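Now for a specimen:

…
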Amino acid sequence: MPDGSAVLNIASINAASPPAEAGVYAATKAALVAMTKSQAKALGPRGIRVNAIAPGAIERDYKPRPDDVQKLIRDDSALGRNGVPADIAGPARFLLSEAAGFITGEVLTVSGGYRI
């Protein structure tokens, strides 16, 4: 990887707030958060930035959540809606851009205020 590159990992809000039924998934995402911070320290001297995004519930076309689950998510979200992929794309572009040139080792939660 060339010096000055940027790495973006996709974690999950479940890394910090794991649901009972997703322990293994949450543990792997927590490990990814730890790796993000570790790699930021290791690669920083080369000017390589390593960050992560921790999405909340993002709707997907290939496996939509049942309506009742979508409603529970909306009801537990400060913005009152489910996320869509475009909600992650903008922050991802930012973290990979030079505008974020002094940001490394961070985890940006993008969840619409879910579970706050």
Observations:
- The first helix runs from residue 23 to 43.
- The CA atoms of residues 7 and 68 lie 36 Å apart.
